[in-house]
Amino acid sequence: MANDAMLKFVGREQVYPAKRAADLRAEDFREIANRYAVPDAEAQAGRCSQCGVPYCSVHCPLHNHIPDWLRLTAEGRLQEAYQLSNATSTMPEICGRICPQDRLCEGNCVIEFSGHGAVTIGSVEKFITDKAWEEGWVEPVRPGPDKGQSVGIIGAGPAGLSAAEYLREMGYAVHVYDRHDRAGGLLTYGIPGFKLEKDVVMRRVARLEEGGIVFHTSFEVGRDASLDALRSRHDAVLVATGVYKARAIKAPGVGARGVVEALDYLTASNRKSFGDAVPAFDDGSLNAQGKHVVVVGGGDTAMDCVRTAVRQGAASVKCLYRRDRANMPGSQREVANAEEEGVEFVWLSAPEAFDGGDTVTGVRASRMRLGAPDATGRRAPEVDPGGAMDLPADLVIKALGFEAEDLPKMFGAEALGVTRWGTLRTDGRTMMTSLDGVFAAGDIVRGASLVVWAIRDGRDVAAHMHAWMRARAASAVRAA
Q1: What Pfam families does this protein map onto (predicted)?
Q2: Looking at the domain that runs over 246-400, which CATH code has it been given?
Q3: pTM higher than 0.90 for the full model?
């Protein structure tokens, strides 16, 4: 019977792929966990309870058919499992690596609620897609019949790449413009290799190129062409730039040498892993080797920074976060990984000033306490009088999140509507901006969010753009 392989959660324990020892993995930027062997993946997939209402799928932004591909995996039907996982996601092996499953699918697994430990969904997803690449099951992008229309996509991050793939398969000519010299956006330059090795991203990009998608790298809209120029070049334009402007810290000494932005720091490290020349890394400005490092922030970017600093050979690494562990926005798994690797978390603390004059030598911090709930329902941090402390620091990394850049000004497009947060204003039904034929998706609309939501937005906006261009083409035929 097909389902004999399932419902094994009572007698079979939850087992994640083994992680390399903390002292060994801290020596390199390889991913920290090994991949399942085939029998282990099948066994863990067989723990799925095959719920009538699969909360894992409900809480996945892509609504992946998780119970179905877990069943196929448990039955040894790995190619079918891959095909089903790929049916709803353009990057399943990337989501399997970097999604915060503990907050999404696994965190809402029914057997997790029953005390048996969630099915290891992300690890199985990574396994079946890596297996697909190895076995040649990943099919090339197959362009549909030529529509005679072209699309320009600004931003080669997950939203832009996802939309590009769907639009190319619909038969559009697709051109992707990105300010960096490699496609991938934060997947390439923002996320460290120990979470997402770069060849995993590059093989996805290569597949899109082989499918006829044209990438214009080192291309900055507003410098190399205005938005209007791209609109005249293409039938429709998608803005999928993400949000890259770092949130500021207002404190004395914040402009000192040695106080740096998280994205600058992570980009330098990732460029080194590609073998690029990175002067700011080589001169020590963006290199933690031998330094006392303090990272300010509690999200996943802060976790990426502290764990990168460990691998660069920092003398010490501390993370300051103004709330407690239970209220931090970052993945609890990432916190645990960081602690295993020697990072010290200083909970309920916030910087007051950065000492040292021209070059930072320390952080003056206040102890915090949690007060009344704020507008989101979270208890707001407030200064705890008499709780000041001094921390030595040769490198301070600001990782407080990201905001939207001023795209209307950057793009030379003052008519591009924005919200009060600086994100692009779009029609909720069509995902179109205030400019006709210009759509937007991903973080530049929703604010800093998850990669899986960007992929979902890319999928959705491709359908809206297709409908709009099809209607436009039909109207032109009628007019003729």
Answers
A1: Fer4_20, Pyr_redox_2
A2: 3.50.50.60
A3: yes
